[in-house]
Amino acid sequence: MRHAVITAGTKGLGRKVTEEFLKMGCSVTVNYRSDETRVEELKREWQPYLECLQFVQGDITKKEDITNIFNQAMNRFGRIDYLINNAGPYIFERKKLVDYEDHEWNEMIDGNLSSVFHFLKLTIPVMRKQHFGRIVTYGFQDAESSPGWKYRSAFSAAKVGLVSLTKSIALEEAEHGITANMVCPGDIVGEMKEATIAAARTREDHETPIGRPGTGEDIARIIAFLCEGNSDFITGSIISASGGVNVVNKVGAKDEVHSLKQ
Question: Which one-letter DSSP state was computed for residue 22?
């Protein structure tokens, strides 16, 4: 049985990704940061899967917690086939770079970039022995072009660095049957992070050419495809899932989208 490690897999996009892997018949180690109440709810909801599922508390900005997540996964299931780096700290307050405190900068870099490094150091040797591995990271829309992002300098710096890291790992580990790809979700917000595509199709979204909001299921389906055995030809790719927003000319983008919907 293939085994997946999914960080921040109890809420938002991570929850839908976890559900997708369980449906695929995989065993899953689900990391969560602190919400024990949500874990207990999911244990009841996912009761049929409990034999192939474990929850491990940990803060992915801390190397020792990452080591514990890895050890728990190996001790219980003995292998790691999929590493889904879903967790990614984010500061919602709009702040310019000079207004960031040192601890805020460190949290963005540690949580969004260094954490992946520490996970890779532990999991790649396991994947090499298996001659199989799928690594998925998360970016943001247009991350591959290294855009500036006002008020989000620390987060964007970490994610743009992660673009290069993902591509570098794809090159370094290809000979071992390991792929590495990045998924860049569009603006998926609130309850839509845990929503289905069917539910999204009942809502209009005039900000996207496709005309509906994005969902956690959209992201989960992409990740599931990237993790298939026959998807080994796709590696080092940065895949956008934004409903077409990423291909709209940025000059007058809103007018362009509205014209598409008329």
Answer: H
The dihedrals phi and psi of 215, each to the nearest 5 degrees, come to: -140, 170
Buried b (16+ CB within 10 A) or exposed e, 166-203: bbebbeebeebebbbbbbbbbebeeebbbbeeeebeee
pLDDT score at 247: 79
pLDDT digits (tens, 9 = 90+) for 46-77: 999 999 999 999 999 999 999 999 999 999 99
| Overall pTM > 0.90 | yes
Q: What is the DSSP letter of 178?
A: E
Question: Could you count the other beta carbons within 10 Å of the beta carbon of residue 233?
Answer: 7
User: What's the average model confidence in pLDDT over 107-132?
Assistant: 98
The pLDDT value given to residue 249? 57
Question: Residue 246: what pLDDT?
Answer: 82
Q: What is the mean pLDDT of residues 209-223?
A: 96
Q: Phi first, then psi: what are they for 191, rounded to 5°? A: -65, -15
Element (H, E) at 16: helix 12-23
Residue with tokens 């192939």: 52
Residues whose CB falls within 8 Å of the CB of residue 47, separated by 6 or more in sequence, listed in order: none
Q: Which amino acid is at 146?
A: S
Contact 180, 160 (CB under 8 A): no
pLDDT tens figures, 171-208: 999 999 999 999 999 989 999 999 999 999 999 998 89
* Number of residues assigned to the chain: 262
Give the residue from 108, 103, 102, 105 showing the smallest Cα distance to 87: 108
DSSP result, 62-105: SHHHHHHHHHHHHHHHS---EEE--------S---GGG--HHHH
